[in-house]
Amino acid sequence: MSYPWEDWDHITKIDPDKDLVDGETFEDVCETGTDALEIGGTLDITEEKMERVVEATAKYDVPIYQEPSNPAVVIDDDALDGYLIPTVFNSSDSFWITGAHKEWVRIEDGLDWDRTHTEAYIVLNPDSSVAEYTEADTDQSADDVASFARVAEKMFGQDIVYIEYSGTYGDPEKVCAAHDALDDATLFYGGGIHDYESAHEMGTCADVVVVGDLLHDKGVDAVRETVEGAKDASAERIDAQ
Ligand SMILES: CC(C)=CCC/C(C)=C/CC/C(C)=C/CC/C(C)=C/COP(=O)(O)OP(=O)(O)O
Ligand SMILES: O=P(O)(O)OC[C@@H](O)CO
Ligand SMILES: [Mg+2]
């Protein structure tokens, strides 16, 4: 089975609770060259805020995925290309591994399974909201991270492994260790990507670089630079094969 993210290099993650930079539009975001939009955040997310972003982005060519932080914010909208549902492999609370998912499936009738996919998160920035929220055990060596990635792919059949440093730039050694541990799964990296260089460095190991805060803090020109960094790194990876 092949999935769209196998061809992506760059994702822009839009936090529905945060504004764009003054004067910028969602059309500008879609013109950065990013391969997909992921809509989600941890704090203060509501269905209404989600809907607003989906409505504003649906008319452009870039695929849009909802990334819900809990079952209550999932929206039913045909404009979405799909749902990327996190499961946090290093959470110390099973709610964030399978519990929320079980509740969601119990409550909702007729989920659209063809559009529903999971992301195996490894959360590594202890100071992020997401680490606190999911009680993640962030004290993981490169070897630990590689092993989590392998478990996710080989034992739990995950197609996406996501190294998450939300809010801070992570350790490239851990990202590369995760990449080396995977055969077919796609490796996402997110956290602190802020310019061409940082996107290029993480893009050397990660298949897909995710950019979040930068869009809301610095705007679309800064995001465009990260697209270029991620795309150049991806082209160099292909050349080296
Ligand atoms: C089962 C369903 C439908 C939902 C549960 C899905 C799970 C397990 C969510 C766990 C939390 C998680 C990994 C959310 C993804 C979004 C994310 C990481 C947002 C970024 O978070 P931060 O940057 O820390 O938060 P703020 O930007 O809101 O401060
Ligand atoms: O906001 P930043 O630090 O870019 O992180 C991106 C993303 O991984 C957050 O889930
Ligand atoms: Mg954030």
Please write out the topology:
Blueprint: E1 10-14, H1 26-30, E2 36-39, H2 47-57, E3 64-66, E4 82-88, H3 99-107, E5 116-123, H4 129-133, H5 142-155, E6 160-164, H6 172-181, E7 186-190, H7 196-203, E8 208-211, H8 213-217, H9 220-240
Bound molecules: geranylgeranyl diphosphate, SN-glycerol-1-phosphate and magnesium ion.
The site of magnesium ion has 5 residues, from loops.
Describe the structure.
- This protein is α/β, with parallel strands linked by helices and 241 residues long.
- Helix content is 37%, strand content 17%.
- The protein contains 9 helices and 8 strands.
- The chain has helices spanning 26-30, 47-57, 99-107, 129-133, 142-155, 172-181, 196-203, 213-217, 220-240, and strands at 10-14, 36-39, 64-66, 82-88, 116-123, 160-164, 186-190, 208-211.
- The longest helix has 21 residues, at 220-240.
- It is globular.
- The protein starts with 9 loop residues before the first strand and ends with a helix.
- The structure holds geranylgeranyl diphosphate, SN-glycerol-1-phosphate and magnesium ion.
- The site of magnesium ion has 5 residues, from loops.
Give a short synopsis of this structure.
With about 240 residues, the protein is of the alpha/beta class. It is about 35% helix and about 15% strand.
